[in-house]
Amino acid sequence: MTLSFDPDTVQVPSGHHIGGKYVELPGEEITVLRPSDEKLMGVLSDGGADSVEMSVAAAKAALSKSKWATMAPRDRARVLFKFADKIEENAEYLGRLEAMGSARLVSGTITGDVVRTAGVVRYFAEYCDKLEGTVTATKADTLSFTKREPYGIVGAIVPWNFPLITAAWKFGAALAAGNAVVMKTSELTPHSLLATAQLASEAGLPAGLFNVVNGYGHTTGAAIVSHPDIQIISFTGSTQTGAAIMSLAALSGIKPVILELGGKSPQVITRNAGDLDMIATRVADSFMVNAGQVCTLPSRLLIEDCIADELTEKVIARTKKIKPGPTWDANTTFAPIISAKQLNRIDGMVQETIKQGAELLAGGARLEAVNEGNFYAPTIFTNVSRENIGFTDEFFGPVVSISRFADLEDAITQAQHPVYGLAASVHTTDMREAMHVVDQVEAGMVFVNQHGRDPEFTYTAGGFKGSGFGKDMGRAGFEAFTREKAVWINYH
Predict the structure, then answer these.
(1) 182, 19 in Cβ contact below 8 A?
(2) CATH number assigned to the domain comprising residue 51
(3) Is 368 a catalytic residue?
(4) What residues sit in the active site (predicted)?
(5) Could you count the other beta carbons within 10 Å of the beta carbon of residue 476?
(6) Active-site annotation holder among 28, 38, 202, 260
């Protein structure tokens, strides 16, 4: 397969996807630009409350007519397996849409993101007949047990950095558990998810169970969170927006929320890490992937004193080997920033970090225009105080700081962040060191000798503290879309 393609030849879907079909609704126009060249990809409307109301009505009708929640679990699984097959059969089309509209490189979307999306759906389909309860101890003439049931309608709001795969973590689990879904795309990256919803219809998923609406957070997103018939909210995005969602969910009617939020993840490298050339490649690649637009980005490198100078030089050298370019070119190795607005935000924070006393070691500026797209140089700081914006705030770009530590206890102290606790990693061949960091660091995800997950589905994603609560993926990610009912039967 030749991965590179001409973006102007790809058909782009339009409208919202409600009740199993594309629907055009009036609303403020949303102009979607390709981040690689700032050219128009499509124009959609902000659906607002009307699109959410229509989706909820379609979801309620679908749940009632199809009996999705109460049908034989294996019958539900068969539909989801067909859905997964459809996704994989259309991997080239979905992968091209994903590459065009986001910062994801085509070298990783067709054979990576889309295939994994199909895998997520299959993984959760296997859980359909594995929803179990518990019988509790009682006296002889009484039966007490628990059973898990779907909520009904799930509201999901997904980010722009990994549009397809992050959405699949939510809709795959929610549908497998017997729910209907009303999902809002990011206004920056809507098209691949709209096309996926159409494939669900073609695979035989009852119309109305999976609805995708477009719009802004303060309009369509708020309408999802506050709708009384939406029983649970799942959101991935910034800590500030997560807090606003919690507040709105409480004010508009008590309902649970699942939040995966921002991070300021540490990456601890000890003297026992191993070959420094290998470590430099691993460490540098981990913060340059997707141009740093990753919630778990290891944006704080903590390096043991005795290897800090040498490793820092090697990491800086690695950042010089990037090949920025359009996402539809298979030779591109470094992605664009999602929008001009985000590029300006990153640069503003970088300049403020310098102003507040940090030392710039590499980068620190926009890259020379590539195809008129939004590109920012991999940026490395040192001497970033804990009061500096470079420590306190999330860049969501290819920006890291380097600090030194004297011993492992010092590293663990520096690794803790007063707000965030999403992810962390440690690089060492000494497993006693590794497990000490694993036990002590405050983070919902910890990696050893890598940073970031492999393409597996059993590993749960979620953070501590200001990085959220609840889990995506794994058994916990499936059970999150069910609620437990206690049953007491007296038969004497």
Answers:
(1) no
(2) 3.40.605.10
(3) no
(4) 260
(5) 14
(6) 260
